[in-house]
TrEMBL record:
This is Dolichol-phosphate mannosyltransferase subunit 1. It is found in: Endoplasmic reticulum. Pfam families: Glycos_transf_2. Component of the dolichol-phosphate mannose (DPM) synthase complex.
Length: 327
């Protein structure tokens, strides 16, 4: 009996049986009508049959033979590969401006966190023309960790935090998007907990909160003086009373989004500055998306000075009033 060589995508199988096999990724069902007549079995993509259904029919009709076992192994291998390809990928959008000293630390922590959790990841660095050489440091980090993990999308000039997220989102390849600060205020160690909460609750958004607890995990702020704490609390109180967003930390900027949700919410967001985060959350709730909270510890930046000033506070108050009228 002649042996036939069957080419299954990139795999070759030598089967000592007058049957050739064609294996396609996806869902499987044998072409039973052609098998007895021509001696050729084809595993075709089928919308109406799943992989387990195929296995049941396969062994019920043809029994357990060594050559069919070879086919089965290939089918399982291809199915596992297809499932692995469908794993979640997390894209971190990291806006930067004068973060030369902070960037290497935060990137190292991000990659360590994702690698320890065995998650697929990438970081989109959006630098707004930092004069301190942040972009040069980012290029070195790209060489170190690889362009598949570190993606550089710089812009000319300081164009605002909101537009930085819009710009970065265009270049993400993950199905989940994480936004966070590059100044080490948001520790990547909270990312696995955010992911766990998202999976447990099937939330569209998981937002980090400094002002709520969840089980043994407590939110908090460290490194702020009394004035900064008062300003943050007051800002959240004003927004909570006027907008009733249903979250405890409306001004936080450490969040996990389903990419499809972020794309829709960001399309309806008008703010471009520091009220951007607040408007994003208010509009997400108004659009009916599910939001869960993850307690985080917010630590004041390690290097550099805070970019929050009087103009940002005025912008925030204007944003609250505008949303109160529109949403």
């Amino acid at each position: 009996m002649k042996s036939r060589v069957c080419k299954c995508s990139t795999i070759e199988v030598e089967a000592k049986h007058p049957i050739s096999y064609r294996i396609l990724p996806g869902r499987w069902i044998p072409d039973l009508a052609t098998w007895p007549r021509s001696g050729v079995a084809e595993c075709k993509q089928a919308v109406s049959h799943t992989f387990p259904t195929f296995l049941f029919r396969f062994f019920f009709l043809y029994g357990l033979r060594s050559d069919l076992l070879t086919l089965l192994i290939l089918l399982i291998d291809s199915w596992v590969f297809t499932m692995a390809a469908a794993k979640n990928k997390y894209s971190v959008i990291l806006p930067t401006y004068n973060e030369r000293r902070n960037l290497p630390i935060i990137i190292w922590l991000i990659q360590r966190t994702f690698n320890q959790e065995k998650l697929d990841w990438e970081v989109i660095i959006v630098d707004d023309g930092s004069p301190d050489g942040t972009l040069e440091i980012a290029k070195q980090l790209q060489k170190l960790y690889g362009p598949e993990h570190i993606v550089l999308k710089p812009r000319q000039g300081k164009l605002g935090l909101g537009t930085a997220y819009v710009h970065g989102l265009k270049h993400t390849t993950g199905n989940f998007v994480i936004i966070m600060d590059a100044d080490f205020s948001h520790h990547p160690k909270f990312i696995p907990e955010m992911i766990r909460i998202q999976k447990e609750t099937d939330a569209d958004i998981v937002t980090g909160t400094r002002y709520a607890n969840r089980g043994d995990i407590k939110g908090g702020v460290y490194g702020w003086d009394l004035f900064r704490k008062f300003t943050s609390r007051t800002a959240n109180l004003i927004a909570d009373v006027m907008l009733m967003p249903g979250v405890s930390d409306l001004t936080g900027s450490f969040r996990l989004y389903k990419k499809s949700v972020l794309e829709k919410v960001i399309l309806n967001t008008e703010s471009k500055g520091y009220s951007f985060q607040m408007e994003m959350m208010v509009r997400a709730k108004a659009m009916g998306y599910k939001v869960s909270e993850c307690p985080i510890t917010f630590v004041d930046r390690v290097y550099g000075e805070s970019k929050l000033g009087g103009s940002e506070i005025v912008d925030y108050l204007k944003g609250v009033l505008s949303l109160w009228v529109k949403v």
